[in-house]
Specification:
Blueprint (H helix, E strand, L loop, with lengths): L3 E4 L2 E4 L4 E7 L8 E7 L6 E6 L5 E3 L7 E6 L4 E6 L8 E9 L2 E5 L3 E6 L1
Parallel strand pairs: 2-11
Antiparallel strand pairs: 1-3, 3-8, 4-5, 4-9, 5-6, 7-8, 9-10, 9-11
């Protein structure tokens, strides 16, 4: 079992920055691909960024060059540094852990609101 707890969301102005954290429990955290998803009102949940156990990353086109995902396996934590935030980044952000071919473990979400 993996339990995930996100933190770091909040209200920020356009162009500002936020850093989200996701603390994970479980001894197998370091072997799992971790992802950050977001869901805006009336929209489907989308994958924003992911990082595998080797540190390779991938990003949605909409956040490339602005967001950075990283992990600290010693602390069982994954981060999402978000810079140059835009109003369209407003959403609930979720941390998720992937097992086999699916993201099966999810955090409760943290709200990010970017004001124009």
């Amino acid at each position: 079992q993996v339990q995930l707890v996100e933190s770091g969301g909040g209200l920020v102005q356009t162009g500002g920055s936020l850093r989200l954290s996701c603390a994970a429990s479980g001894r197998t955290f370091s072997s799992k691909t971790m992802g950050w998803f977001r869901q805006a009102p009336g929209k489907q949940r989308e994958l924003v960024a992911a990082i595998n156990s080797g540190g390779s990353t991938n990003y949605a086109d909409s956040v490339k060059g602005r967001f950075t995902i990283s992990r600290d396996s010693a602390k069982n934590t994954v981060f999402l540094q978000m810079n140059s935030l835009k109003p369209e980044d407003t959403a609930v952000y979720y941390c998720a852990a992937r097992t086999l071919s699916s993201y099966n473990y999810w955090g409760q979400g943290t709200q990010v609101t970017v004001s124009s």
